Amino acid sequence: MAFLARALRQSNSRLSSRCPAVAASCRWISPTAAAGSPEAGAAVAPADPELPPPREPVGGARVELPPNPEDALEVFVDGHAVRIPKGFTVLQACEVAGVDIPRFCYHSRLSIAGNCRMCLVEVEKSPKPVASCAMPALPGMKIKTNTPVAKKAREGVMEFLLMNHPLDCPICDQGGECDLQDQSMAFGADRGRFTEMKRSVVDKNLGPLVKTVMTRCIQCTRCVRFATEVAGVQDLGMLGRGSGEEIGTYVEKLMTSELSGNVIDICPVGALTSKPFAFKARNWELKGTETIDVTDAVGSNIRVDSRGPEVMRIVPRINEDINEEWISDKTRFCYDGLKRQRLNDPMIRGPDGRFKAVTWRDALAVVAEVLHQVKPEEITGVAGKLSDAESMMALKDFVNRMGSDKVLCEGNGPNPPADLRSNYLMNTGIAGLEKADVFLLVGTQPRVEAAMVNARIRKTVGATQAKVGYIGPPADLNYDHEHLGTGPETLVEIAEGRHPFCSVLQSAKNPVIIAGAGLFEREDQDALFSTIETVAKKFNVTRPDWNGLNVLLLHAAQAAALDLGLVANPAESIKSAKFLYLMGADDISLDKLPEDAFVVYQGHHGDKAVYRANVILPSSAFSEKEGTYENTEGCTQWTIPAVPTVGDARDDWKIIRALSEVAGAQLPYDSLSAVRDRISTVAPNLIHVDEKEPCTISAEVKPPVKQQVSSTPFKTVIENFYMTDAITRASKIMAQCSATLLKK
Amino acid sequence: MAFTMRAVKVPPNSASLEEARHRVFDFFKQACRSIPTVMEIYNLDDVVTPSQLRSTIAKEIRKNQNVTNPKVIDMLLFKGTEELNNIVEHAKQRHHVIGQYVIGQEGLVHELGSKDQGSSDFLKKFYTSNYF
Ligand code: SF4
Ligand code: FES
After folding, report:
1. Which residues 15-74 on chain B approach chain A with CB closer than 8 angstroms?
2. DSSP E strands: which ranges in A240-362?
3. Does ipTM come in above 0.90?
4. pTM of the predicted model, to two decimals?
């Protein structure tokens, strides 16, 4: 396919520009015949009598012109007129015209540095070629991207860059997806003239995630700009001048950002590569599967690269509404947890306390038999934080059919506000946070709870100087914020208008309140949420055109669980349970569980709850199954299986469906689509994939809350960013990260 | 026999379904003709009869009876010929042949279904694999 597309592109650029799917999936650099020969640049090219036909914008992008025609201008790219908004650079204008300009330092989400000079183009009436990424487009500019001067300039730049770049492509992990490799094939000269020694640079230690080979660095400073602008840590910088220039941490120090893995993607060469992935595979042997991440409630879009039955790495996919093009380190590096501690056979604990592997038939028969010996109200089902909607639906139906209504999802607390969707979702959406000008964070630390949401807040703060007020335990937020207090009394003060921050909220146009899902677990959560609502009403946070009252959920299963109504009270259900069905639930407290209770653990990892389990039923992890997940903003997405299941494991919903039959309460669905049909009768929004179902704004129907807020300060909800669930706890890389990177 | 077969080059694609169908019959006949040799080489007399082997061959061919694309039939024929060559050239051993063509793919354990009687299709498939 890729070969075909390449061939097509080279032979006929018209063809590939007409199929945007091809153009969007890969950035082609199209060499032209003349670029290959060194002499061509010097020769005066005859004027091209025939213009090539106009092209579609690069990557099928759409350009939105401002409504006011004064704010748009017209430039000519290779003879074709294009209209662009004011403030576009020459490079962006060329992209609109469908010409992909080679570049190293320019990155659309970072500030402009203009130091690699690869993007030189010719502009009429300017004496020298100009760096298009840093040059604003002016009305009537005549840009030429394909002239001998531009080609010669690119070739020269390539030669300078390759002067000090080692010739180690065969052992470089970037090989095959390296911008320098691609562009030197397309624009470089076919021979070198360099006979001196190359310079070499000492490698830096950036921690357990990023491997450095600093000799390969071409000083584009993308990584430095990423660290300061997006990740918000001033760890990386440029040291030295001239040929002594190097990238490094100023003092011997590790890179301590939760987004540090992204420098691997933005580094155009192999200077920064993934340490866990080093020398493990070459990228052309990998099969990519476009799926989503489940380690937090954001649902970042990822691509799982696998070779055979093994997940080799995880890289981000672009989704402007959710994760832009970044992912957190937990998302990127948790994959080695998928290979460790896996449960691969059904097991029953014998009288001696040891597990014995049995067949599915025997395991299900044992579970069904116990199930018939307990009273219906003693049956409890608990869904874990990584459960998909299908399995939660099956679990709920099954437990209900057995005559019990005690089915819950861990992390939802005793009485979650599950009646109205707007009460537990991020109503502005993640992208919508960019419109806000004041944030009030209540009992949430987005940096550890949802790193991508934090990156959005940071982006907004950086772009518009939005104010952030934070109520909670002392936290390390990587943007300017005001720490208002540690407990609910501060919130009450704001609600009563006694707090200095009120004036900030008062003057805000689009204020946003973000309440953490950690509040669900508190005793006084009803009172807290009603106080938060008072604040919201007082400062116009919820109004018909703007609903800025957000709840930031903690894990992937949470939103769907609330949609499906898995809301039993955990404390009571566990206390009275004689038969406990844990579907991947490891973080629920089992202290109160009666001694003689029978515990079935269905899950993919031998994690905490296995120690108490009587029967283990192995299930598949998110990389191995098709499942529906809803993220914190209410957007429904699917995981796609990338690798086969381990051992004798089965998909979660199938296990419950099979068990229901053995137990004599057969569930009425046999296929995934039938389960989804069933879901659509309960929560239709879970069927509309990749869509955000808007929630209707609540008309006031709530009974007044009698509860009082307690004075206990808010707690830190996530102690260790790197280890939050069964997969990350099994991961060795995550263990290394928590050992070295967490500040103690 | 083996040498003659090896000397034959890969034939050109069948032009029509008719031609492909014809080739399938030729192949079947060829396979049937080699049964006595195979019985001899692998000492199969006490485990199987020629007619059983013949019906196994027919069954293997019938597995693909829904294929209508002549190119695909050609490909399957090529694979079949290769397999036959391997058997006739003694590239396999006795247990290969017995395992694949005498006992069959299911192996020695035959689930008689007494345990699963009355259970749904779903459950039966569930017990065998996750992928259905
Ligand atoms: S390490 Fe990579 S991203 Fe950073 S300056 Fe060097 S080449 Fe650019
Ligand atoms: S991309 Fe323009 S100077 Fe680097």
Report:
1. none
2. 246-249, 272-274, 287-292, 301-307, 310-316, 347-349, 355-357
3. no
4. 0.83
